[in-house]
C-alpha cells in the first residue's frame, strides 16, 4: 500500500497546503465559536439581569394593586421577540407571589394564575427550594444541571418586603447550531481560500518539486547511463536544491573518471607489490651472503684442514640452498622440494650472523636447540630466525642476543631475545608492515617477511618489548598438515 | 322595526340637509378654529385604540362641527366620568352603567344603533380550547376577567346575573381582574390568562370581523338580553346650541358616506331616551342590594 510518505512531492505539497488551511480554519473556528459563545452568554446574562431588575421594579405597583392584566402587559413587552437576537427573548416570564404561586406569567396555560409555580415540575420545582436559600434581596442566576433552561430570579421588593419574584427563563445558548453556523461560514471562507491557494500551491509545488523530480530522474540513470545523467537539466541556483544538483553533477563527473583511476591504482599497486617482492628477495639473498662471505674469508685466512674444509663447504651448501629456495619461491611452477628444519640449521644461523655480531660487539647465546629435525620447511624457518637474529644484533650494540628453539608437542617454539634498544610503543602497531623501519640502515622488510612466513605456516608471532628486554616469540604448529 | 324604518327615512331627509350644512361649516371653519375646542371623552366602549381611525374621525367631526375637536382618553371609565362631571369635558362616550349612576348630572346626547337597535349584549367568553364550560355558573372558582368596574356589559351584568343566581360575585371566582378594555378581555381569555370573561358583544362581533384571530381564540358561552347601548352624554351645563349641534352631527353620521365608514359597524345614532337605561339602573340597584 502506498503511504503518504511515498507520494510524490507534487502531490504532497498541495496536500500539505490543504491540510494547513483546514487546520487553521478549524482552529480559528473553534476559537471563534468559543469566543462567540462566551460573548453570547455574557450578553444574555447581562441582558437577563437588567431585564429582571427593570421588570421587578415596574411590576411592584401592578402586583401591589393586584392588577394582573397590567402586569401581563408589562411581561408581554419584556417578552417581545427580538429577531436580531432571538436568544435574548425569555422563554417564560413568571411572576410569583411570596408563596411561590403564580401571579401572572407569559404562559398562562402552563402557569395558571394562583397555582403553584412548582406545578409544571422539573426545574421549576427546584427553583422553589432555591428561593429559600441565600439573601432574599439578591438577584440570582440558577442553572439546574439537567435543564435546558437557566433562570434569573429577581425579588419583587416593596418597602423592604418581598412580594414575590420575577423569574425569567431563558434557553441556554445552543452551542451546536451556533457551532454549525460558524463551521458553515468557516467552510465557505476555507473553500474560497482553497480555491485561491490550491492553484497557487499547485504551481508552487511544481516549481519546488520540478528540480527535485529532475534530480530524482537523473539519479535513476546511475550508474548505467552516466553520460545522460551528466547532461540532465538540473537546477542551477544557490539554494539547497541547487547545491544538491551541483553535488550531483560533481558526483557524476567523479563516477565517470573512477574506472580510470581504479585502473591506475591497480597498476601502481601491482608495481608496488613487485617492488616489495623484489626488495624482499634481494634482502633474503643478501642476508646469508654476508655470513657465507665471512666464512670463505675465514677459510682462506686459516687454510684448510679437511675438517674445516668440510664444514665450510657444508655451510656454503646450505646457505646457497637457502638462496636457491628463496629464489625458487618466486618461480611458482618449479617448486623445489625443501628439507626439514634440522639442528644444524641453528648452528648455521649463528655462524651466518657471527660476523655482524662481531662488528657490533654482540654476544650470541643459544639457550636451547632442537634435538632432531622438525617437519617444517628449513628455508622458511631459516629466513625467520636469520631475520630475527640480524634485527636483534642490530638493536643491541655491546649486548647479548639469546636464541631459544624447542618443541612442545606438535609445535616449534622460537624465541629471540636481546637487551638492546627496545621498540617504542608507537611503533608496535606498524611493526610488521613493509618498509616500516626503526633503524636508519634498515629496509623495513625483515619483520614483514617474518610475519608473512609465520602466517603462511599458520603460526603466531608475539612481541614483548621494554627497555633492556625485547623478545620475539614464534609458535609454529606442525604435524597436522 | 317601525321606528327603524322611520329613522332611515328621517336619515335620508336629513342627509340632504347635512350636506348643505357641511358646506356651510367648511366655509366658517377658519373663524371657529380659534375657538375653545370641543373636548370629547372616549372610553373602550368601542375600539378606541385604533389611532388611525380616531384621527380620521376627529378630522371628520372638526369639519362637521366647524370647531377643533380634542379626544380625551383615559385608563378607565371612571376617569372620563370624573372629568365629565367636573366639566373638563364637553361630551363623552360612556357606558350605560356610569350613566345611570350619574344621570342627573349628565345630558343624554345620542344612543348608537347596533344592528338596528339602540341595544347591545354582554357576552361571556371562555378560551376556545375549553370545550366544556357552558354557563357562567360553571366558572365557579376560576379566574375571571372583567373589562372595567364601570362597564355594564363587562362588569355589572355578570355580577347581576350571579346575584340573581344567589351567588356572591365577590367570592364566586377564585381571582378576577380588570383589563380596562373589552378588547383586552378577549385577549386575556384567548391566551387563557383568565378562564372566562365578560365582554361588550358589539366589541366582540366587530373584532370577529376586524381581528378574527383574537375572537377565534375565544368561545361565547352566554349572551345577555339586549341592554341599552353605551350613550354619548354631555356635561350638565353644556350650552343647548352646542348640545344640539353635536347631536345633529352624530345623528347625521349614518347619512354621510364618510361618516358611515367611521361608524365601525354601527348603524348610526338616535337621540334616545333616558328610560332606555332604566333596566341597567335596576340591575345596578340589585347588585348593590342583593
TrEMBL record, chain A:
It is found in: Membrane. Gene3D superfamilies: 1.10.287.130, 6.10.340.10, Histidine kinase-like ATPase, C-terminal domain (3.30.565.10). It is an enzyme of class 2 (transferase). The chain crosses the membrane at residues 13-34, 149-171, 186-205. InterPro entries: HAMP_dom (IPR003660), HATPase_C_sf (IPR036890), HATPase_dom (IPR003594), His_kinase_dom (IPR005467), HisK_dim/P_dom (IPR003661), HisK_dim/P_sf (IPR036097), Sig_transdc_His_kin-like_C (IPR004358). CDD domains: HAMP, HisKA. Keywords: ATP-binding, Kinase, Membrane, Nucleotide-binding, Phosphoprotein, Transferase, Transmembrane, Transmembrane helix, Two-component regulatory system. This is histidine kinase.
Amino acid at each position: 500500500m502506498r503511504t503518504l510518505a511515498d507520494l510524490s512531492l507534487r502531490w504532497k505539497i498541495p496536500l500539505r497546503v490543504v491540510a494547513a488551511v483546514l487546520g487553521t480554519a478549524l482552529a480559528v473556528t473553534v476559537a471563534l465559536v468559543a469566543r462567540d459563545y462566551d460573548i453570547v452568554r455574557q450578553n444574555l446574562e447581562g441582558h437577563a439581569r437588567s431585564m429582571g431588575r427593570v421588570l421587578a421594579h415596574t411590576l411592584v405597583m401592578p402586583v401591589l394593586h393586584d392588577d394582573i392584566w397590567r402586569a401581563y402587559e408589562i411581561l408581554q413587552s419584556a417578552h417581545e421577540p427580538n429577531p436580531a437576537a432571538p436568544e435574548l427573548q425569555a422563554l417564560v416570564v413568571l411572576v410569583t407571589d411570596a408563596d411561590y404561586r403564580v401571579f401572572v406569567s407569559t404562559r398562562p396555560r402552563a402557569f395558571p394564575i394562583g397555582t403553584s409555580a412548582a406545578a409544571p415540575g422539573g426545574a421549576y420545582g427546584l427553583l422553589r427550594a432555591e428561593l429559600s436559600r441565600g439573601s432574599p434581596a439578591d438577584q440570582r442566576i440558577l442553572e439546574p444541571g439537567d435543564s435546558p433552561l437557566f433562570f434569573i430570579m429577581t425579588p419583587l421588593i416593596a418597602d423592604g418586603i418581598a412580594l414575590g419574584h420575577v423569574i425569567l427563563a431563558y434557553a441556554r445558548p445552543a452551542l451546536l447550531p451556533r457551532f454549525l453556523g460558524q463551521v458553515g461560514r468557516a467552510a465557505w471562507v476555507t473553500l474560497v481560500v482553497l480555491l485561491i491557494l490550491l492553484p497557487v500551491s499547485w504551481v508552487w509545488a511544481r516549481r519546488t518539486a520540478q528540480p527535485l523530480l529532475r534530480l530524482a530522474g537523473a539519479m535513476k540513470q546511475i550508474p548505467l547511463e552516466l553520460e545522460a545523467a551528466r547532461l540532465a537539466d538540473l537546477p542551477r541556483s544557490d539554494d539547497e536544491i541547487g547545491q544538491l544538483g551541483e553535488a550531483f553533477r560533481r558526483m557524476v563527473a567523479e563516477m565517470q573518471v573512477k574506472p580510470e583511476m581504479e585502473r591506475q591504482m591497480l597498476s601502481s599497486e601491482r608495481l608496488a607489490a613487485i617492488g616489495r617482492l623484489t626488495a624482499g628477495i634481494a634482502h633474503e639473498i643478501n642476508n646469508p651472503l654476508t655470513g657465507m662471505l665471512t666464512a670463505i674469508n675465514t677459510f682462506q685466512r686459516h687454510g684448510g684442514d679437511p675438517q674445516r674444509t668440510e664444514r665450510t663447504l657444508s655451510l656454503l651448501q646450505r646457505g646457497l640452498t637457502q638462496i636457491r629456495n628463496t629464489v625458487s619461491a618466486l618461480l611458482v611452477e618449479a617448486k623445489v622440494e625443501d628439507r626439514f628444519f634440522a639442528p644444524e640449521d641453528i648452528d648455521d644461523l649463528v655462524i651466518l650472523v657471527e660476523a655482524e655480531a662481531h662488528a657490533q660487539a654482540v654476544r650470541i647465546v643459544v639457550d636451547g636447540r632442537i634435538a632432531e629435525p622438525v617437519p617444517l620447511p628449513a628455508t622458511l624457518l631459516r629466513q625467520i630466525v636469520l631475520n630475527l637474529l640480524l634485527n636483534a644484533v642490530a638493536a643491541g650494540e655491546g649486548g647479548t642476543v639469546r636464541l631459544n628453539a624447542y618443541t612442545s608437542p606438535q609445535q616449534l617454539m622460537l624465541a629471540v631475545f636481546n637487551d638492546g634498544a627496545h621498540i617504542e610503543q608507537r611503533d608496535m602497531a606498524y611493526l610488521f608492515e613493509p618498509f616500516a623501519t626503526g633503524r636508519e640502515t634498515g629496509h623495513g622488510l625483515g619483520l614483514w617477511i617474518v610475519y608473512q612466513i609465520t602466517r603462511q605456516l599458520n603460526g603466531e608471532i608475539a612481541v614483548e618489548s621494554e627497555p633492556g628486554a625485547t623478545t620475539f616469540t614464534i609458535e609454529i604448529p606442525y604435524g597436522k598438515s | 322595526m317601525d321606528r327603524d324604518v322611520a329613522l332611515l327615512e328621517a336619515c335620508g331627509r336629513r342627509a340632504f340637509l347635512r350636506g348643505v350644512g357641511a358646506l356651510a361649516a367648511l366655509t366658517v371653519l377658519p373663524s371657529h378654529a380659534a375657538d375653545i375646542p370641543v373636548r370629547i371623552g372616549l372610553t373602550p366602549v368601542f375600539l378606541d385604540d385604533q389611532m388611525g381611525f380616531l384621527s380620521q374621525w376627529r378630522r371628520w367631526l372638526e369639519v362637521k362641527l366647524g370647531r377643533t375637536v380634542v379626544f380625551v382618553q383615559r385608563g378607565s371609565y371612571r376617569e372620563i366620568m370624573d372629568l365629565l362631571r367636573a366639566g373638563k369635558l364637553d361630551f363623552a362616550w360612556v357606558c350605560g352603567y356610569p350613566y345611570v349612576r350619574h344621570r342627573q348630572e349628565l345630558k343624554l346626547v345620542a344612543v348608537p344603533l347596533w344592528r338596528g337597535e339602540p341595544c347591545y349584549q354582554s357576552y361571556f367568553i371562555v378560551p376556545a380550547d375549553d370545550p366544556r364550560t357552558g354557563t357562567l355558573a360553571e366558572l365557579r372558582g376560576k379566574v375571571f376577567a372583567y373589562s372595567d368596574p364601570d362597564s355594564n356589559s363587562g362588569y355589572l351584568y355578570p355580577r347581576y346575573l350571579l346575584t340573581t343566581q344567589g351567588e356572591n360575585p365577590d367570592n364566586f371566582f377564585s381571582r378576577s381582574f380588570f383589563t380596562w378594555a373589552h378588547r383586552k378581555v378577549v385577549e386575556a381569555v384567548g391566551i387563557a390568562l383568565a378562564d372566562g370573561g365578560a365582554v361588550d358583544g358589539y366589541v366582540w362581533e366587530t373584532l370577529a370581523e376586524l381581528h378574527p384571530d383574537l375572537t377565534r381564540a375565544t368561545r361565547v358561552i352566554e349572551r345577555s338580553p339586549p341592554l341599552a347601548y353605551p350613550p354619548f352624554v354631555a356635561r350638565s351645563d353644556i350650552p343647548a346650541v352646542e348640545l344640539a349641534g353635536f347631536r345633529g352631527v352624530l345623528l347625521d353620521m349614518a347619512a354621510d358616506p364618510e361618516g358611515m365608514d367611521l361608524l365601525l359597524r354601527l348603524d348610526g345614532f338616535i337621540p334616545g331616551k333616558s328610560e332606555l337605561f332604566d333596566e341597567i339602573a335596576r340591575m345596578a340597584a340589585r347588585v348593590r342590594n342583593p
